[in-house]
Amino acid sequence: MKLKIFTLIILTSITFFSCTNKKKDKEVPEVVAIEEKFEEFHPEEFKAEANITPRDYSIDTTNSYSRIFFDSSSLVKYLVDNKIDASVGSRMISFYNARNYQFSWFSKDGPTEQARGFWNMHSYLTTYANGKSLIDSVLQKRMDNYVADDDTATRWTSRDPVLLNTELKMTHHYIMFALLNYDKGFVERKELESFIPVRKQHPDSLVSNLLDAENQDKKYYEGVNPSYKKLKEQLVKYVEIQKNGGWPKLSVNAKEFASADTSKQIAILKEHLFITGDLAVNDSTEFFNEELDSAVRKFQVRHGYKPTGKLTDNQIKDLNVPVEKRISQILINLSRTQWLVSEPEGKLITVNIPEFILHVKDGKTKVFDMVVVVGKQGSKTTMFTGNLNTVVFSPYWNVPYSISKKEIAPGIARSGNAYLARQNMEVVGSWGNGIPRVRQKPGGNNSLGRVKFLFPNSYDIYFHDTPSKGLFKNDKRAYSHGCIRLSEPAKMANYLLQSDTSWNAGKIDSAMHLNKEKYVRIKPAVPVLITYYTAWVDDEGLLHFADDIYGHDKDLTAKMFKK
């Protein structure tokens, strides 16, 4: 009965309202005012579902987040065709009313950050947590393809029926996720609608809304997302710094801050570090003392540098980033933190790409951290969730087509078999067009090193060793073709196999020096989360900032903020 009445209301709405509503922008399609029909019929079973957000006509192509709109009749068709019940259907109507039927998961540029973040969470939930009912193989294939291949921007249009169906199905799953995972009262309907930005706003307006004492929505949400709460507390601190005039600008010359030297710039540096909380006591002297040395090291740790106590020109540039930009950076990452999965009870491996660090936890206990190398610009490491289920000792490296074409084929043309011998490679087939299929044999110079760790995914990304150990000494480590290189691969192998009594450190070392591959299954598989945060608060309460190495912050800034 509930579904039948809901369908009647929707279909009646199409007939009655499609002729009466007026377009507010010629590029924004007509929208059916379904919520008015809820009020007209108002059957008993819809009383709890009738709190639908009114349509926001002020949103158009000039101020919207995604810049793609669709006709609401598509939503109506989706709800009817898929027999969506009233609880979910009314929330979907409310969700899109708040956006004026603007896409939420795709923009003119492809999948939004929110799509990537939610899909990461979705993949984790369907594998490890309370999300079995969200398993959808068709959606899985589509989203994996969209996220892996987001460069063909010409197809990101509401005229693509497959894309539009994927948009609506993502929202359907988003609402279902919320109903499954948030206790009633913790995350309100309107709050869910605000998780995906709707329109461009000035950062000050976003801050004002977030910190409004009368706005209780986010306060409830903070109870189920501690990472969000901690970062929001830092936002409060930085807004106060902004109100007090920010921090002083330093001379971009590291020589003026040499330890034990006296300089006016040292006094300015102390003022800056006191404002940010790195220096405990306000000290206006011009002498580089032990307290300042400790404060500089703390700043360096928070910004991804080795804590040497000696500033570099690049670090001074980081110090001179205006507080307004840091506030925007915190706002962007607050948005990302909304898609952070709840920590499992067991093992979890995370890699935060801009941090260049891998973290291993068991429940809430930190096991170890490890320095890593991630993909360079042009060969980015993708954000996703995987299941680490296989260790491959002494691996072959199957050279990708692009490298075979650009490097291997020319090398063979110059030197023939001598080139292959120097590279410890062998031809195993052909890509066609004269491009050989080549693999590198196991050994010390193998590009994957002596071990790799597989978590099957659509992006062909995995962890592996590397013969290029020197890169781990650098502070910024984006050099790979997309895979993640581990600084301590033997440590990872020992950790993953510690519960298997047939393996010990000696046997693992031997397996890493074989002349052929050896596959070992990991049971149970260990979840792997690849994330992208440029501002976060660690377990000790320290606020960290990282460089926007892939330009994701820049893209979000253009979508979220008014100039």
Layout of SSEs?
Blueprint: H1 2-17, H2 34-41, H3 72-81, H4 86-99, E1 106-107, E2 110-111, H5 113-128, H6 137-148, H7 161-181, H8 189-194, H9 203-211, H10 217-222, H11 226-243, H12 264-276, H13 290-302, H14 313-319, H15 323-337, E3 347-352, E4 357-362, E5 365-375, E6 384-393, E7 397-398, H16 401-415, H17 417-422, E8 425-432, E9 435-440, E10 451-454, E11 463-464, E12 478-480, E13 484-486, H18 489-496, H19 505-511, E14 518-531, E15 535-537, E16 543-545, H20 552-560
Parallel strand pairs: 3-14, 5-12, 11-13
Antiparallel strand pairs: 1-2, 3-4, 4-5, 5-13, 6-10, 6-14, 7-9, 8-9, 10-11, 15-16
> What distance separates the N and C termini?
50 Å
SS element count, helices: 20
Q: Quick one: overall form?
A: globular
State which percent range the strand residues make up: 15-25%
What is the averaged pLDDT score?
85
Main structural class:
alpha+beta
Low-confidence stretches: 1-48
Please tally the β strands and state the result: 16
Which percent range fits the helix content?
A: 40-55%
Biggest sheet character: 8 strands, mixed, barrel
State the strand order across the main sheet.
Answer: 3-4-5-13-11-10-6-14
Cα Rg: 27 Å
